[in-house]
Amino acid sequence: MEHVIDLYRQKSKVYTDAIDKVVVSMILKKKENGDNVFMICGCEPGSGSTSVAINMAISFALSGQRTLLIDCDMRKDIAHKRLNVGESFGLVDYLLGEESNIIYPTTLKLLQFIPSGECNEDAVRVLCSEKFDGFIKIMKEKFDFVIIDTVAANTVVDPAMISSKVDGTILVAMENRTLKNSIVEAQKTFANVNSKIMGIIVNRVDEDDYEKTVKYHDYFMKLNKKKQ
From CA 111, how far away is CA 226, in angstroms rounded? Predict the structure, then answer.
């Protein structure tokens, strides 16, 4: 029986509104330049980039975009994956020549998911292959938006290789945790391969700090409370 991946949005309305703003800007940008394949990458481990990637993919799908979420972290053991489909078959198997369906449906009609699979080979060799280049081109044509979740920038070389093949990279940092040096090093990593950095998402921002930046972030929540 085919697995259906359960995907749910963050419960925080403030969080989802912030993600929606990013997604809307990316949809508008696509109309200008056609960019639709993006890598989401933490500046360092534990930045929450996987949560950001999942919620961005959900937001794209809910906005009517045919969306593909790809787990391209080939370093982490499957048992420790947040999205564990219960099978080891995934992207790496396809890239190594296995001909089988690797695209799984999710609980959202317009959102599909590709797991990384178990990488017993050298991840660098797999990601440098011409088949990976061809895979990205096929997915770019097949979907409105492709979101690639990968390992943190400052850990291994994988993100640099992937970023050179996509339309843009979005970095993720965590407020009061990610060091400035980590952000600078991540930017240098991608600059060395001439990849386009779309911006930096600061994750887990304190609501008081967010309110200072986005003045009317809770306007409609307060308005609805008054009506009740």
Answer: 35
Reduced to 3 states (helix: H, G, I; strand: E, B; else coil), residue 147 is strand
Please report, as a single letter, which amino acid is at residue 153: A
Domain 37-227: CATH superfamily is P-loop containing nucleotide triphosphate hydrolases (3.40.50.300)
Q: Using CA atoms, how far apart are residues 81 and 84, in angstroms rounded to an integer?
A: 5
- Residue-wise pLDDT for 6-33, tens only, equals 887 887 888 888 899 999 999 998 999 9
Q: Does pTM top 0.70 for this prediction?
A: yes
- Tens of pLDDT along 83-92? 766 666 789 8
d(CA 71, CA 49): 11
Q: Alpha helix locations (H) across the chain?
A: 13-33, 49-62, 91-95, 123-127, 130-142, 158-163, 180-191, 207-213, 219-227
Task: Report CA 225 to chain centroid distance, whole Å.
Answer: 34
Backbone angles phi, psi at 183, to 5 degrees: -65, -45
**Any idea where the domains of the chain sit in the sequence?**
37-227
